[in-house]
Amino acid sequence: MFKSIYIRLALTNLKKNKRSYVPFLLTSIITIMMFFDMYMIMDNSGVREMPGADSMRSILGFGMVIVAIFAFIFLFYTNSFLIKQRRKEIGLYNVLGMGKKELSIMMFWESLTTGGISIVIGLIGGAIFGKLMFLLLYKIVGYETPLQYEISAGSVSSTVLLFAAITFITFAFNLLQVRKANPIELLRGGSIGEKEPKTKILLTLFGVASIATGYVLANIVENPIEAISVFFVAVLLVIVGTYALFVAGSIAFLKMLRKKKSFYYKAKHFHSVSGMIYRMKQNAVGLANICILSTMVLVTLSTTVSLNMGMENIMSNRFPKELILSVYQSDENLTRTVDTVVAEEMNRQGLRQKNGYRCQYTSLVADGKGEEYTVDSFDSTFYFNKTLIQIAPVSYYNEMNQDEIKLADNEAVIFSSSKENYGKDHFRLDGVDFTIVKEPDEIPMEEKQEFPVMDTLTLFVKDVGTVQNLISSLSGGEAATFQYSYGFDLDGSEAKKEAAATAITNRLRNDYGIACDIELRGMYEEDFHTFYGSFLFLGIFLGGLFLMATVLIIYYKQISEGFEDRNRYQIMQKVGMSRREVKKTVNSQIRMVFFLPLGLATLHVAAAFQLMRRLLASFNLTNVNLFITCTIGTLLVFSVIYGLVFKLTAREYYKIVTK
User: What are the backbone dihedrals phi and psi of residue 644, each rounded to the nearest 5 degrees, phi first?
Assistant: First the structure.
């Protein structure tokens, strides 16, 4: 009987507080659906057979971890709004004779009800929309195999366990809050902490300095790979700075507005500015969360949409020639063998080569800048802040460029893969000096890159003997190890191209024992579409999740502030403020609070633009205009949604304060 009383009481409380609990339940349900569907897709047997399945499943697995962490943090955070709003109600129950044990039982049934409803509806909704998610994924990656829809036991059990654990932790937190507080503190609820906060100049300066440092780091890094590590440092600095700026800087800003008499002493500004100063201490974190989440939405969607829409640019950067054959150790005889096998298989399939190049070269990694370089190692391993130097006979340069340059022993032609040319008259490597007689703007073998992963200089010298003598003098007598690269475009069907590529690889490896690799653009196209398509799929998921979180934080923030402000507005109306003036004041207050996070988020995205360009360059996307268009488009769409949320929350806030 007593159990049924607690159950009825819990259900009554949830119904009475539906304005707060319905958005929380909807958010929980949607988050559960997202996690469940991502797990279900990753665990699907049909997905395992897709081209590029390993990469896609890794990306989805990474997304699941983000959703799980985010779900815990966000649901725990929004739960704190709920318990804050109900402190007076719980205190009243306590004063009327309900002990903390009875309150704990009632709150247990409330948590069990909300958690159970969320998990059950989330699983059912996830199962219903799961097929739609499969279709969306297959549409994005361009995979045509018939859909095999499966609901695995692992996806169900993992979802239930994760969100049951989150529900239990939030219940334990609520229990701790009630058990720690006395009835008077609970009855006072949101009235605690109404003392005007002090202006914290040092914390404000720290926030500005942290954000400025993050901005500088985002704009000074050049190397795309290095940008990945710098990205996390810059993000951390901007996040810390954003919190500090809202916690301390917002108070300083509002006090500055209060000192400006022409602005402050107006009906629509007076009440809103003074009220926000007192509340900013507890609401600044919410504003910072809105700003950071807005930035995450903009960055996530703009980058993933750019990657998907820039597939043609990505493929042309990753595969400058349709077929590239790489032989790791070669000499003149082996080179002739490779050329013969390639010609025979092209003729056998009726294919015609065009825009081709051949080059036999040796590689080394060097330190240095300008004209002076020092050998670091005799290989082509990737290193940060070093230069890859490729040395080849000038005969290959002449062949690929239809030129007839003749060089002396100490002369060279040089090409830089960086956007800027080498631009020097001499090149010196460990004291061996070459006079540069020509620097072309382009060669078929290499392409200029705006943000090269590793700076590359290709040095064409007199002949093979010059290359051997140079390497021998630099390495202490060791002979040069040559590599051979053969690339060209093709005319013909994809089936014939694949047949020729496979035959060339098999013959060279099996018949001649030649260590080689062959890259045919068409054979990798499906894998690339799957890889980048899964990024877009994940971006849509996470962007939607962050957007939902942003909307809910804004909603709860306005609702909780509405209840806190209701008494103040009622007093103001009693002393002569009309409903129209109340509405103007409400709109003024919400606009100030509302668009500050959006403005700072836009500034964050603008400051991160150069860094994001470099990160996209590491994914072979260099189309800057496309990225600008996608970023602006994402910002406009997000601003429209943000504006709609402003209208909705302003209306709810107005209803509460005038009720």
Answer: -65, -40
Using DSSP's 3-state secondary structure scheme, residue 427 falls into strand
User: Percent of the chain, pLDDT > 90?
Assistant: 13
Backbone angles phi, psi at 419, to 5 degrees: -60, -40
The span from the CA of 534 to the CA of 52, in Å, is 10
The reported pLDDT for the residue numbered 1 is 45
CA 561 to CA 659: how far, in whole Å? 14
Alpha-carbon distance of 584 to 392, in angstroms, equals 75
Per-residue pLDDT tens over the stretch 365-415: 888 877 888 888 776 666 667 888 999 999 999 998 888 899 998 999 999
Digit-coded pLDDT (tens) for 181-208:
565 555 555 455 455 556 677 888 888 8
Q: Are 412 and 439 in contact (CB under 8 A)?
A: no
- Contact present, 358 and 486 (Cβ < 8 Å): yes
Given a contact cutoff of 8 angstroms between Cβ atoms, the answer to whether 532 and 311 are in contact is: yes
**608 token code pair:** 């991160």
Q: Is 351 helix (H, G, I), strand (E, B) or coil?
A: coil
pTM for the whole structure: 0.74
First to last CA, the chain: 38
CA-CA distance, 538 to 258, in Å (whole number)? Answer: 45
The residue behind tokens 């890889």 is 531
Distance CA 565, CA 586 (A): 10
